[in-house]
Design a protein that fits this description.
By secondary structure, the chain is mainly alpha-helical. The chain is 73% helix and 0% strand. The N and C termini lie far apart (43 Å). The model has no long low-confidence stretch (mean pLDDT 93).
């Protein structure tokens, strides 16, 4: 749906239309398709932190941790209070063995309101998968 509630005619033309189609792909379990649409959306609106965040999340889901870190870093630059971006970036850092950076992001995410237990469980899971 477009912002005015009308159905979106495909192919998408605007950043919002690409973003909405990307969200649908992500919800259906296709992070690669989501990333493609989010890339198109971010090309049209590079300073949109919601698009950058979702693009980072798609890359995180696909295991492209370095690209995810880049996108979450952009979100944090736009909004230093984005606890979810710090948390997700911590997960990506953990996945590639950058535990010191991960610990700093975890601390900041918790300071900003992220649930410590949930974040600790995810980080521990990723560490175990890395072994």
């Amino acid at each position: 749906m477009s912002p005015d509630g009308a159905p979106i005619d495909f192919p998408p033309q605007t950043a919002d239309e690409f973003f909405q189609r990307g969200l649908k792909s992500a919800q259906l379990g296709f992070p690669d398709r989501a990333a493609t649409d989010f890339e198109e959306a971010v090309w049209l609106e590079p300073d949109n932190q919601e698009i950058q965040f979702n693009l980072g999340t798609a890359y995180l889901s696909m295991g492209d941790f370095e690209q995810a870190i880049n996108n979450f870093t952009r979100v944090i630059a736009m909004n230093p209070e984005a606890s979810d971006a710090y948390g997700n970036r911590a997960v990506a850092h953990t996945a590639i063995g950058e535990d010191d950076k991960s610990e700093k992001d975890v601390a900041e995410a918790i300071r900003l309101g992220a649930p410590p237990d949930g974040l600790a469980a995810i980080i521990e899971y990723v560490k175990n998968q890395r072994k």
